[in-house]
TrEMBL record, chains A, B:
It comes from the Bacteria. Signal peptide: none annotated. Residues 24-120 form the Cyclic nucleotide-binding domain. Coiled coil: none annotated. It comes from Pedobacter lusitanus. It holds the Pfam family cNMP_binding. The lineage of its organism: Bacteria, Pseudomonadati, Bacteroidota, Sphingobacteriia, Sphingobacteriales. This is Cyclic nucleotide-binding protein.
Length: 201, 201
């Protein structure tokens, strides 16, 4: 009802997110609230571009982002999709303060909560349980990435597509074929062929 | 001189390691000491095999391990080398308690410090700064793995070999060609060709 309440409602997706880890108490939420910024991101807009230093942890409230690299020939390689209740950040650039090699682009109209590096460092010191929470969050992301690497080495394209469907059950309907194909390292035509074969089985 | 001193010297490589993060105080070291087990591992011995649940964090004091997966055709894919002052663990299996898809094998006679899962969970609760330390350790490992994934997508074999030399400057002398070739996803013959070309440049 009041503007304070309106403002604190911004925090809700994030406090709900942390309930999967160590939940924050009222005092901790009060420290967090002034340090997050809600942003609406239009489709096709970037929250990180190659050559820029990644200065934010971005929590996706609504929408979908792709994280990708463009190689020397100009080919895009999608390395990760990030949807609701997950973090879209180039951790390497964030910590090293070196220019990122990556792009992070909105695939849909999206809403994010941004935490600036200065604020996150303040929060780590003042809310020690955030070290625990982000330790577990990054461990999960490490495992995801390791699975992706193993799949790229050991799986054929059909197996990689089935693994994609398992990891992102909603995304096959939300994303254009070209984006899924780029993630799988195949052409859109080959993806269509795989889909036809799976349907006919 | 006394057996207590001898015993506590076991801890030293690990307390030195943590000095790069938040150093442990005497009380914290006293909690850690009874929960680590020093092990000598013979060359070619496994500290994890496919199908087993990974129950330990393994800190490498001396030696070298390879972490790899064997695909359905029986081909080995090296995903990571781990040497002194680093951790060799299948984080996914450790946390999920599901059977690992990976092997972790000693490439040299090695010494490790093992922490069992039960002990690590105890330590996380009783030494909160370990959450911080392992958050940063895992973040670094995430960045390493992401670089490896990007290289496998965007680099040719020569570029991947140069990146390997940069990441593991000592390992090109310590490891047999076959192991480096498996890490790079090429044949040992092709690796020899790359090396000859680089020398002749």
């Amino acid at each position: 009802m009041t503007s304070v309440n309106d403002n604190s409602s911004i925090l809700k997706p994030l406090t709900e997110h942390f309930k999967d880890y160590l939940p924050l108490n009222d005092e901790e939420e009060a420290l967090l609230l002034p340090r997050i910024v809600e942003k609406k991101i239009r489709r096709r807009k970037f929250i990180l571009q190659e050559g820029s230093v990644c200065q934010h942890y971005n929590f996706v409230v609504q929408g979908c982002f792709k994280i990708y690299k463009v190689d020397e020939k100009g080919v895009e390689h999608n390395i990760q999709f990030v949807t609701e209740n997950d973090w879209a950040t180039d951790i390497g650039s964030f910590h090293s303060e070196k220019p990122s090699e990556l792009y992070i682009e909105a695939m849909e109209p999206s809403t994010i909560l941004q935490i600036h590096k200065t604020d996150l460092l303040f929060l780590y010191v003042n809310i020690p349980k955030l070290d625990r929470n982000f330790r577990v969050i990054i461990e999960n992301k490490f495992v995801e990435l390791q699975n992706r690497l193993l799949q790229s080495f050991c799986y054929n394209a059909t197996e990689r597509y089935l693994a994609f469907l398992e990891q992102y059950p909603e995304l096959s309907k939300r994303l254009p074929n070209t984006q899924i194909a780029s993630y799988l390292g195949i052409t859109p035509e080959f993806l269509s062929k795989i889909r036809r074969e799976l349907v006919s089985k």
